[in-house]
Amino acid sequence: xxxxxxxxxxxxxxxxxxxxxxxxxxxxxxxxxxxxxxxxxxxxxxxxxxxxxxxxxxxxxxxxxxxxxxxxxxxxxxxxxxxxxxxxxxxxxxxxxxxxxxxxxxxxxxxxxxxxxxxxxxxxxxxxxxxxxxxxxxxxxxxxxxxxxxxxxxxxxxxxxxxxxxxxxxxxxxxxxxxxxxxxxxxxxxxxxxxxxxxxxxxxxxxxxxxxxxxxxxxxxxxxxxxxxxxxxxxxxxxxxxxxxxxxxxxxxxxxxxxxxxxxxxxxxxxxxxxxxxxxxxxxxxxxxxxxxxxxxxxxxxxxxxxxxxxxxxxxxxxxxxxxxxxxxxxxxxxxxxxxxxxxxxxxxxxxxxxxxxxxxxxxxxxxxxxxxxxxxxxxxxxxxxxxxxxxxxxxxxxxxxxxxxxxxxxxxxxxxxxxxxxxxxxxxxxxxxxxxxxxxxxxxxxxxxxxxxxxxxxxxxxxxxxxxxxxxxxxxxxxxxxxxxxxx
Length: 489
Ligand SMILES: [Fe+2]
Ligand SMILES: [Fe+2]
Prior knowledge:
Helix content is about 45%, strand content about 10%. By secondary structure, it is α+β, with helices and mostly antiparallel strands. The site of one fe (ii) ion (FE2) has 4 residues, from loops.
């Protein structure tokens, strides 16, 4: 029995793999992630679980048949299937991020398959992996998991130890993939910080700062790619995805407001950690579906000052992230202090808090969340932020935000006066053209799907003063079964 990558041979970091290898690897990883979700959500005998496990088995077979074995490992921030480094694309980067996180929490570097595991073996493995023995230190978890598998009579898998290898493999990535890699890394780091804070352990800030540095660099070089990624919505990973989105939006906004690079790094850190206090709120409350009871809401609201305490517990080498603490404390306070926590004396919110409140309010309101059946369109949210003073946002910061995103932010689905349906891909580089973003047309005037990646600039005119196309209203993408993330590949 051969198992590429096992017995000490490391998957090579430079292994990009051929296109067919990429395809099989990608299918396997996406199937694995779906199967994990199914196992988490439904009882084992549920048809959804059976189907997901069968699909996982099939995709693993395909990899095994063409490559003589199947091993999935984590090397630094990358996933490898055998020798193939998985390229990040729109359909897999959420899956990659959550598998990376799962391996790290389980204290393993990956898994290899002996022969063809039976469906039952897959279910047992995935159930164990998604509730790893967190009560043990990381280095002991692999042995714990192995013995659990043994006692469940599952002998189909080899668990690899985790490696410290963390080479910088970003050099051969194109700008878009680099942005996605930065996003995945940030997601992973955020999860690490929040889950270890939950367990009463404190990770250092070094990795977090490195991730923030990546975001700041991406915003400074190619902000459109990075902002496009904030259209990612993921219910299961809500807190992490939200933190990364808020970080990206806050940094982009800070740049608009003229902050220096050093300030942007500081702001980005504060934004990434703004909800760290949620690590001290019970999980069942965070994940509760439907309306919260008044007393539950009060508990959730403690995440502001709990965030300050959580940051006191971080080992920072003596230098406390004061501005991050202030922002965690103030980000729901509102400029008129009508929010929470309540303060006895009048105060002015810090600039970082004002910026983070705007980014936070925008991302939260545009996300389908537990207590929001249908999220507002991004354009509705912006209008509310601008016109509703009760939200307590700083009007100057909101104005800068609208300047950044345009009136129709990235990911908005719009109807044009030609009756075509389109999606907003980027704000217009001409900052005065707030209502004329760069779009991609999705459907023609009869509702036929168009698969044309060409971008259209809405400032284009047929004759002087007469625009070729104009937005007449926004639409709910769900009505058309449109998955926004698909368009930001
Ligand atoms: Fe918050
Ligand atoms: Fe938040």
